[in-house]
Every structure is written in C-alpha cells, then in structure tokens.
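S1.2 Input.
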Amino acid sequence: MKSNKVIYVFLVIILLVIIGAIIYFVYSNNKSDEKKDDNSEANVARLATETNINQNSEVQSSETNTNSENILENSTTTEATTEEELATYSTKLGGSSEGRLTNIRISCEKLNGTVVSNGSTFSFCNTVGPSTAEEGYKEAPVILNGEKVQGLGGGNCQISSTLYNAVLAVPNLKVIERHEHGKEVHYVPEGKDAAVSYGSVDFKFKNETGNDIKLYFSTDDKTLVATIVKLI
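S1.3 Output.
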C-alpha cells in the first residue's frame, strides 16, 4: 500500500514537470513571436524612415537643381547685351500727306532694330529695298532733278537725312556715300540732307567705333526720330 502511494506521488511529480515544460515552451514561443513582431515593426519603421530620408533628399536635390537653373537663368540675363545711347536726332513731319506718312511708317519698320557690326558698312537702300506698291508704299512727293514729282516711297529721304544727322554726332561713324537733294528741303538744315533712291543714290556709313551699334526709328506721324546705340 505504501509502495503504491510512492508511485502515485512520483507520477504526479512527472506530470507536473511535463505540464511545466509545456507551459514554458508555449511561453517561450510567445516571447519569440513578440520579438519577431517587434523586429518587424522596427524594420517597417526603419524602412519608412529611410523612405522619408530618400524622398527628402530627392526634394532637396530637385530644389537645388531648380535653384541652379534659376541662378543660370539670372546669370544669362545679367550677361545679356546692354545698350548705351550714342546719338538721337528728330525731324518734324508737318505738312506730310497721308501717303508720305504711310511710306515713312513702312520704312521705319524695316530699319528699326538694324544692327551694324563693328567694321561693317550700312547701306540705307540695301536695308530698305525698293519701294513697291506690293509692300504698301504710296505715291508721295519726291525730288527728281531739282523738281518735286510724285513717286512711290516719297518720304524715305527724310528718314535717311534724319539718320545722317544722328550719324554726324557719333565719332568713328565714317560717312561713305551721301548726296544732297537738287532742291532745299525743309526738315533739316541746309547741307545736312541725304537723298536716297534705290538703284541710283544711297546713304552709307562705316562703323569704326570698336563696338556693334543698333539703329532705332520711330514715328508718331508728327515727329520722326532716329537713335543710335552702342551694344556692350
């Protein structure tokens, strides 16, 4: 009887040990899973952080590139050619017919913005070209052999004469060709006119200033203005 009790107690102890081992094993597995979960969460957090860092780096890189482009654009703008006025001359258009005013507007548009590079020669006739009805030129008074007659492009001589007087005010603009009218004109002082007629007489000057120059022409149908600027 006593021997049976000892066996019973021994079996109970073994059972308790087995139960304890099972509980320990389950507890250990749970801890391991929790660690894995913690590691997974840490990895997710780490990946999210790295992604944010990479995105921030890309944004900063993009901003840097944009800033660099802006700096380059500003630098280009700063380095753009600047203009310095050398001379300007104006003449009055009072008494001009509508056809003459039309001709002056057309030729001013053709001449406006002309660049004469250093060392080159400007030709009024070659720049404006022939005055034709197809280009919108009208009949207006012109001086031919000392007499006023009607002709296409009448008014061009006032533009060339206005430019001539501006040229005279700039050193190292050398007049190559210039012709006076056979009759006195009213818009410039005597002896300061420059007659032009495509294919026969021209007004030319050579740019010896050491810089390229640019010519501007404008009219409001009351005044004609010619301006010469130096390109720097």
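S1.4 Remarks. The helical segments are 2-78, 98-111, 124-128, 156-168.
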